[in-house]
Give the backbone structure.
Amino acid sequence: MAEAVAVQEELRSRVDLVGPGPSAPATVAGLDVAYAESGDLLAAAVTVLDTRTLEVVDRAVSVGRPAFAYVPGLFAFRELPALLAALDRLATRPELLVCDGHGLAHPRRFGLACHLGVVTDLPSIGVGKTPLVGVWTPPQAERGAWSPLRDGDEVVGRVLRTRSGVKPVFVSVGHRVSLDNAVAQVLALTPRHRLPETTRTADRLCRDALAAATRR
């Protein structure tokens, strides 16, 4: 565990929190992981979407064992090898990674989106369903409203309303993207639902892959 924390501390210095990142990427990838109930099997999935149509144009999965024990704050080490294996199987190199998780909004400011971004050198953002750190005031009820997510004196992300009257999501920078751009990209990826289409498609794919693996 101490070694993993040391790796996070070392890699954190490489994170680009300024960006600004692609303002109109042609392709965006969603990344997600599903776990068997036993906890000893996982399926990592990556879906690449055409941003004009939000249709899936490429996909890949990797099924295997978790690479690390479950430790809060070190989740990336558990999922990263399988996610990188899935990324390597793509025929399309996406212009932006959208992680089901957090980037800067992490106790050591180095969540999964930061880790993936630094390792792949791709622009990346984190979109969490629930917060890992920070305090906030609820944003206004309309779509597009947001409030800052603060941890101490630092703004580590934004609490973003992607659907009017629906629970917000928690957006943070991963690597090579500005926070303004991250929010703009999430809104572009949520025309109908609370979660980005990248997350929704990757979630379905990893669940299907896990179900197929457990039937074998």
Q: What stands out?
A: The chain has a mean pLDDT of 91. Helices lie at 2-12, 75-88, 112-120, 179-188, 197-215.
